């Protein structure tokens, strides 16, 4: 049997990434060019700048990945590319690069949903067992996804306003921390105690939806009220309190869904999956739940990368999914 090689391309936000995965699970090349330094001074991702960097980096990153893998394009079975959701101008660079190679080298093309990619980052470290529940927490998404089999995604809950990562980044801004704020809040939170009373949005009984805008506003108000009184809130206490509120809701709802849907495996996905507090709390809670495997990817597979896109692409390839050259970037693509 011949080995299967899938080339993945990811450009949905501020990372230009190309990776090659062997037989669905083994990384043989993984290159990520981050643009964080360029966006930092603006306090967030500037779409126009993101697109321009993707154009500049695309061929460089692609060549480096091919070199790492020591492969030719004739060895590649399919090209998997993030088609959405994300920034349209950023997505277009990856989609057009993928289409150009697919056309020029006559290689099958596969469109991948960015969130499917985040979830499939887990398959690089472990085989997946179904039914499976994924907690997807990133800068753009907060979702609980139920999977009864490979390639089948059912969103059972999602955020009604801000994504968890977005809330982290906004709270970080109020505390004058650099972008992206998540890692900084995480680090501060380890140094403080959650002494400040902040809200938790549980929403309706039985709902798996999330809401973080109320929490974000409460943090902002707490800081402003203190300023008006001429006081200063200890940033580590505020970070710890905010983080505790986010983790309480994420973990409680994940455990409820784990039980209701009787899943065999729970996987964590997305940039916020890098959060130390969230990882530790999930590990501690799931130790007490029998018959359920908890999988948490290593940090380099949590934030945006192309290995996860290639891993998802491999499963879709096996399922016979193919895109044609009409494939287009879709910033609002549904899972
Ligand atoms: O998945 P990702 O790389 O990009 C999107 O698809 O959005 O996620 C980026 C998000 C940012 O909001 C960043 O602040 C957050 O993940 N993040 C964290 C941590 N590391 C990254 N949030 C909390 N704690 C962290 N350690
Ligand atoms: Zn992402």
From TrEMBL:
Principal cellular location given in the protein's record: cytoplasm
Residues that, per the record, bind substrate: 136-140, 169, 182, 186, 275
Named cofactor requirement(s): Fe(2+)
Chain positions recorded as Fe cation binding sites: 114, 118, 304
Single GO MF descriptor: tRNA N(6)-L-threonylcarbamoyladenine synthase activity
Localization, UniProt: Cytoplasm
Catalytic reaction equation(s): L-threonylcarbamoyladenylate + adenosine(37) in tRNA = N(6)-L-threonylcarbamoyladenosine(37) in tRNA + AMP + H(+)
Superkingdom, natural source: Bacteria
EC number: 2.3.1.234
UniProt-listed InterPro entries: ATPase_NBD, Gcp-like_dom, KAE1/TsaD, TsaD
Free-text cofactor note: Binds 1 Fe(2+) ion per subunit.
Domain Gcp-like: 26-310
Any Pfam family matching the protein: TsaD
Alphabetically ordered keywords of this record: Acyltransferase, Cytoplasm, Iron, Metal-binding, Transferase, tRNA processing
Statement: the UniProt record of this protein carries the keyword Cytoplasm: yes
Similarity comment: family membership: Belongs to the KAE1 / TsaD family.
Function: Required for the formation of a threonylcarbamoyl group on adenosine at position 37 (t(6)A37) in tRNAs that read codons beginning with adenine. Is involved in the transfer of the threonylcarbamoyl moiety of threonylcarbamoyl-AMP (TC-AMP) to the N6 group of A37, together with TsaE and TsaB. TsaD likely plays a direct catalytic role in this reaction.
Name of the protein in its database record: tRNA N6-adenosine threonylcarbamoyltransferase
The organism's taxonomic lineage, starting at the top: Bacteria, Bacillati, Bacillota, Bacilli, Bacillales
């Amino acid at each position: 049997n011949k080995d299967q090689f899938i080339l993945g391309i990811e450009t949905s936000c501020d990372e230009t990434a190309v990776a090659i995965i062997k037989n669905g699970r083994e990384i043989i090349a993984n290159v990520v060019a981050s643009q964080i330094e360029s966006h930092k001074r603006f306090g967030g991702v500037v779409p126009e700048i993101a697109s321009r960097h993707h154009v500049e980096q695309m061929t460089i990153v692609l060549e480096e990945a091919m070199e790492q893998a020591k492969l030719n394009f004739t060895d590649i079975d399919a090209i998997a590319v993030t088609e959405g959701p994300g920034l349209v101008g950023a997505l277009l660079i990856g989609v057009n690069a993928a289409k150009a190679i697919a056309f020029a080298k006559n290689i099958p093309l596969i469109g991948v949903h960015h969130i499917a990619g985040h979830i499939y980052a887990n398959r690089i470290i472990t085989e997946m067992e179904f039914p499976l529940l994924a907690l997807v927490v990133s800068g753009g998404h907060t979702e609980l996804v139920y999977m009864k089999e490979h390639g089948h995604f059912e969103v059972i809950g999602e955020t009604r306003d801000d994504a968890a990562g977005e809330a982290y980044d906004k709270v970080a801004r109020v505390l004058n921390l650099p972008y992206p704020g998540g890692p900084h809040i995480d680090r501060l939170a380890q140094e403080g105690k959650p002494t400040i009373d902040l809200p938790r949005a549980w929403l309706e009984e039985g709902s798996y939806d999330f809401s973080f805008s109320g929490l974000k506003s409460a943090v902002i108000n707490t800081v402003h009220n203190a300023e008006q009184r001429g006081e200063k809130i200890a940033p580590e206490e505020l970070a710890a309190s905010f983080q505790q509120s986010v983790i309480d809701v994420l973990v409680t709802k994940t455990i409820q869904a784990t039980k209701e849907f009787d899943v065999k495996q729970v996987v964590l996905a997305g940039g916020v999956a890098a959060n130390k507090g969230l990882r530790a709390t999930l590990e501690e809670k799931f130790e007490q739940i029998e018959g359920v495997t908890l999988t948490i990817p290593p940090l380099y597979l949590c934030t945006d990368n192309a290995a996860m896109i290639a891993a998802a692409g491999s499963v879709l390839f096996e399922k016979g999914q193919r895109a044609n050259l009409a494939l287009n970037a879709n910033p609002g693509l549904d899972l």
